[in-house]
Write a structure and sequence with these properties.
ion channel, 3 helices, 3 strands, 2 domains, Mechanosensitive_channel_CS, 52% helix, 153 residues, mainly alpha
């Protein structure tokens, strides 16, 4: 059971899972904008131009164009996108704080070990990689972890 939980934790901590979650949330918010655009502006405009059934609640004289609902949907989208941005920023900060783990070198001194990063796109790569999986840049030498003395408390 512990191994299962560790695998789940590793799965959740992958960057791709967070990106997908953000895409779903922002996509859901954007759906509201598109629905509002069609329901409140495009459809009533078509009904006004080509005639059709009765339209209640006229916002623009002679039409049922409801700019207020559309602007409200846009504001909701911006609010949701900003909250998701703050969540991702916070999660990235926590992940970056945990990426430099304290270890001891051969002399017994505490050092911080940081994973290698691509010098071109600055994304994390695996130790020993010769090509970045994110931007496909080739490295002149295999990527290596870096160690530096731990900050004094």
């Amino acid at each position: 059971m512990k191994n299962f939980l560790n695998e789940f934790k590793e799965f959740i901590n992958r960057g791709n899972v967070m990106d997908l979650a953000v895409a779903v949330i922002v996509g859901g918010a954007f759906t509201g904008i598109v629905t509002s655009l069609t329901d409140n502006i495009i459809n009533p405009l078509i009904t006004f131009i080509f005639g059709g059934g009765s339209i209640d609640g006229l916002v623009v004289p002679g039409t049922a164009i409801d700019f207020g609902a559309f602007i409200s949907a846009c504001i909701n989208f911006l609010i949701i996108a900003f909250v998701v941005f703050l969540l991702v920023k916070g999660i990235n900060k926590v992940q970056n704080a945990g990426s430099g783990l304290l270890k001891r070198n051969k002399a017994g001194e505490e050092v911080v070990e940081t994973p290698p990063t691509c010098p071109f796109c600055l994304e994390e790569v695996k130790d020993g990689a010769t090509r970045c999986p994110h931007c496909a840049a080739a490295f002149s030498e295999p990527a290596r972890k870096t160690t530096k003395p731990a900050p004094k408390a």
